[in-house]
## 1
Amino acid sequence: MADKEQRFRSEQLEEALAKQDVAAVAFALRNDIVIVPRLVTGKKDMQVRVFGREGTDKRILLLFSSADAYTAMVPNEKVRQVMVYDGPRLEAFLAEHLDSLEGVFFDIAGPHTMQSTPEDLLAALRA
């Protein structure tokens, strides 16, 4: 069971967020994994769950260092699904959806939340 749990956690990203070290976050995203919320649709397709504010068509991408960090944000949701992304997959998603994203937050439920613009994150992944 520990092996399965490890696939849903990035110690590198956790440590970088704890230090609030932008360069270390970028390095972790390029070289390890990140947990991405999955839209629960009842279908087998794997769609990223993005969040938005009412009255705007822009969306916010929430990324997590672990599945537990995502659970802390949505503790009352009965069905929580996540996907594991690596750097190239995250880069491709950002490039495809750059026009509809207005922000990116890491571990938004804390304790070490960080924020980025989609453009800055994309540039960091391409560095």
Note: The longest strand covers residues 101-106.
## 2
Amino acid sequence: MVAIIEKETKTILLKRKFIDSWFWERYALNPYQGCQFGCFYCDTRSQKYYLHQDFSETVYVKTNATKLLDKRLSNARTLLPDVVALSGSSDPYPQIEQKYRTTRNCLRVLKKHNYPVHIITKSQNVLDDLALLEQIGCQSWSTVSITITTLNADKACFLEPNAPNPQERLDVLKTIKQSSQNIQCGILLMPVTPFLTDVESDLEVLIKTAKEAGSDYILFSGAMTMRDRQALYFLEKLKNKYPNLLPEYEDLYQFKYNQNFYDGKYGANYTYTRNISKLIYKLCKKHNIPIRIKRFIPNDYRKHNYIIAEMLLSMAYEKQTQGEYCQNLFWAGQNIQSLKESIEDVFNRKELYTIKNVYGKIRILIENYFS
């Protein structure tokens, strides 16, 4: 039984130092704290997020979220409309959303202030706000990413015990694509859980099925990350259900299992991560499905900045999936989208060299863009 606690919060909108280059979010918003889906791999269990330890047993409802968000955006002097992600540390559509409508009311505020939104969810309840998300998409930009890590019902039941089953999530994708004109919708294939959801034939079925369902993209990461409390929680569940896999994880993440602490690596070894990324990339190319989300492009001084940054950051992402060096492309993209003026003005002044990481082939690419 999940405990529901109402509380007021002091802050509601987080502005990121750098725009997230995968989800294109500038801002993060969590209408709820805690997540009743209880996915065993969830990174939010980590101490890094400073959340309550009974993360999946207690969900806090931020009762003043709507009022606080409206006040924040109404009084903002330096904020510009940009992508707001719902949510970063909890699903924005728990069952209690049908009672509290905190997410819906936050979406109404974002629509009022003309902010684009990116919904990240596993829940069918997102369909309740389809009309509102369509309006936001028509007005600015609206994207729904549905997390599906496997189509294998047994493995999904183990990894995501309280979440809707994979077929129900696919049905959400189909409904959105069949019912809307202005909502971008795709699959988050993340994380890949080693030795459980990394079988090539299973991954290909998932990618092929997503394509047939109308998915606009499949965004993927490498192997699941492990850190402190989150690692201990996952490993305990793994030991109980798949004890034969524990030695494989010890080897992959370089630790010796102890139920009281985790001292292994944050990520799986490089070879495994590179190979799984290459595999998913190959399968997406085979089935002709994009591996990137089309980003929001504002109609102000940032327009060319964002278009060029998207190009560079997408090139960096593709190189990363192939295990190739991508840092210069990545930081050139980040620095360009962080400019306080149009890169076209910088180009016209012949001062592209003043932007960090913009030199050589990157500089030529930008010059060609304006030619």
Note: The mean pLDDT is 95.
## 3
Amino acid sequence: MNKIDCFLAYTGQKKTREMSLLLNANALVNNVFVISPDTVEIPGAETLVVEQPLSTKTMQLIAKKSSAIYSLLALRGTPLELGQFAISRLFQVAENTRAAMVYADYREVKNGAETAHPVIDYQKGSLRDDFNFGPVQFYRSDVLKSFSDDTFQFAGYYALRLHAARLGELVRVPEFLFTMVETDTRKSGEKQFDYVSSSAREKQIEMEKACTSHLKKIGAFLSPPFKEVNFSEFEFPVEVSVIIPVRNRVKTIKDAVESVLMQKTDFWFNLIVVDNYSTDGTTGMLEKYAAEGMLVHLVPERKDLGIGGCWNEGIFHEKCGRFAVQLDSDDLYSSENTLQTIVDKFHEEKCAMVIGSYLMTNFALEEIPPGLIDHKEWTPENGSNNALRINGLGAPRAFFTPVLREIKVPNVSYGEDYAVGLAISRTYKIGRIYEPVYLCRRWEDNTDASLDIAKQNIHNLYKDRIRTIELLARIKQKGKD
């Protein structure tokens, strides 16, 4: 009956001891090991002293120590409780599916309150290094023992689960099998930019290396040179159109519009505002600008449009320019030179898309942490591959209009820009601007300021699906090369 070896991160003497005794009382459990930076004495458990719990070295030590068919890994380092027959359920599902790894939904205790925390199903495109598998992962031990990768300090576990995904399915059990204490109680919008902090740079480099290795092994890795574009092939009424989709942003739309009208360029440009049936006074404000000839105020005939659908209305409009440049209705350009800087980059690099850098501000346009978001992790050599790992590409985004018209924008209001960026990066070069040309305003009405778990899961599931579609397209493309 002893089918499972358990590996637990040390969570304090009392909690770790309780969990060790509980696991040892289970007939399915073979051995219990405690992962700790220091030697600790836990009844019924062997201590494994490691410096980095998620390193390749630790993963290989776990594999070496495991002598059972399955290995249970709980490495988050936070107090954990088992649900009813949780271990038996993981074992049952693993036996029935022969999955490389099994994981489950859980309950979390945050600020003393317990809530349900469902996770999402794993896909081929679930390449985010922060994919949430919950507090426990249940591996086939042969998967662990076959793992051999670069010696990572931070990305060992990430490389392991990519390895597991190449060997078999990662199966989610949609049942709440554990309860975990959540120590990071920040809102979703506050966690969003953790990966760009300077302290995370070394970790991010490792994660990129692990993901790139995975893409090479599955035949999805892209390398330069990419296809160049011919900007003189088509005629347009103006060189640039700034496109702003908007619905009910009477507090911010004036600032956005004025930041466009102040632009100084050596080419003609216009502003197309796609007003998606605003009801708060936004429409009246835009009508005044349009009456003075300052913008094209476009109200779609369709009433089923998200942000992406509004973008399609703008780029297929007869007055759309050679380049279509994004501006959200909450935000504004940081100087009068933003459009000129973007167009110069298009011609300098002969690329189909340009992405700038932005400064995070509060509603009053005062800089707030994390400040500058410049996505310097993007490199000309590997940016199109690393794009599959991260959750966004930056702003402002600008497109060579014929390419965007060919691809089209998904008619959704989240992730539409990411989907287009991935599709473009498969074939064309993307130019980057690393100085701030955009102000990203954070306030309570931002769509991602504070999302509940259900909404976060919907967003993550969609982006993973987008990545899956793109991954399969790249594998298909590489097969034809």
Note: The first helix runs from residue 13 to 24.
